[in-house]
Every structure is written in C-alpha cells, then in structure tokens.
C-alpha cells in the first residue's frame, strides 16, 4: 500500500465516494493537503482516501476514512490512521481527534487504535455522534 496526498487528478474519485463534504470544498482540501489517497501498489489503483481538518482550528481532526468495498478489512484504514498520526506528531501536535456515529462499527475500530471517548454531540436527525481523542 502507498499513501500520498490527493491531487487534482483524484478529484473525481473523491467526489464519487464522499457524500459528507460540501463538494466545492474538496478542491480546497486537496490544495491544503488535507486528503490522502490510498493506493494498491500491485494493481496501481486507488483503494480509498482519508480526509482531515482541525477542530477549533488547532486540534487535528480526522473527518473521514473511506476504503472501497473489495479492500475493506485489509489493514488500509489502520495504516492511514497511523500515517496521519505520525505526520501530526511531526508537526508538533500531541493530541488528535475524530468522531463516529453511535450506530457505526467505526467506534470499535478507533478504540482498538487507542482512541478514547471524549464526549458526544446529539443532532435532531442523526444518531449520537461520539467524539474520540488520542494522545500521540
């Protein structure tokens, strides 16, 4: 597996799969180097992406990981999370953050990676959003 920053060439791949971002922001996230593309080196194809930002503009916040169906449960998610955490540590951060809905399996994935519950957000139309943090 190879992890690279997304480029303009990845735009269509991302917008076809990312239903959780205001579409015009994708190009901004790409130019700010806040999206990684995951590659299967043997096939030479994209297998997923990870998008992040900053909570309160100063705490790295992993917004979304997407792994294409045939590649799920193959370690790609874990590898990109560790890659991102290492990058954030190199940039001087000591804590990272993410969230997941209470009805999603992702909460267990993040907890296995050392993330701990830090609170929750309740919106009218969605399940409870669990906030998770990790010291790196």
Number of domains: 1
Low-pLDDT parts are none
CATH overall fold name: Aminopeptidase
β-sheet strand percentage: 35-45%
Our measurement of the CA-to-CA distance between the termini, rounded to an integer number of angstroms, reads 23 Å
Tell me the number of strands.
7
Q: Mind describing the biggest β-sheet?
A: 7 strands, mixed
- Helix percent reads 25-40%
Give me some keywords for this one.
136 residues; alpha+beta; seven-stranded mixed beta sheet; 26% helix; globular; Ribosomal protein S18 acetylase RimI-like enzyme; GNAT_dom; Acyl_CoA_acyltransferase
Write a structural description.
The chain has helices spanning 11-17, 25-31, 76-90, 106-112, and strands at residues 2-5, 35-40, 45-55, 59-67, 95-101, 116-121, 129-135. It has a single domain (2-135), classed as Gcn5-related N-acetyltransferase (GNAT) (Aminopeptidase). A hairpin with a 4-residue loop joins strand 2 and strand 3 (45-55). The protein is built from 4 helices and 7 strands. With 136 residues, the chain is of the alpha+beta class. 24% of the residues are buried. This is Ribosomal protein S18 acetylase RimI-like enzyme. InterPro entries: Acyl_CoA_acyltransferase, GNAT_dom. Residues 1-136 form the N-acetyltransferase domain. Pfam families: Acetyltransf_1 (PF00583).
Gist of the model:
Helices cover 26% and strands 37% of the residues.
Helix and strand topology:
Layout: E1 2-5, H1 11-17, H2 25-31, E2 35-40, E3 45-55, E4 59-67, H3 76-90, E5 95-101, H4 106-112, E6 116-121, E7 129-135
Parallel strand pairs: 4-5
Antiparallel strand pairs: 1-2, 2-3, 3-4, 5-7, 6-7
């Amino acid at each position: 597996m190879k992890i690279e920053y997304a480029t303009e060439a990845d735009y269509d791949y991302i917008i076809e799969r990312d239903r959780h971002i205001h579409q015009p922001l994708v190009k901004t996230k790409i130019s700010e180097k806040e999206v990684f593309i995951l590659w299967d080196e043997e096939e030479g194809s994209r297998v997923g992406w990870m998008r992040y930002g900053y909570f309160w503009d100063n705490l790295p916040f992993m917004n979304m990981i997407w792994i294409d169906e045939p590649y799920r449960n193959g370690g790609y998610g874990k590898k990109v999370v560790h890659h991102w955490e290492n990058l954030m540590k190199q940039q001087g951060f000591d804590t990272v953050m993410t969230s997941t809905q209470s009805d999603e399996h992702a909460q267990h994935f993040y907890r296995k990676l050392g993330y701990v519950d830090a609170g929750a957000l309740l919106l009218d139309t969605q399940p409870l959003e669990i906030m998770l943090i990790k010291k790196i």
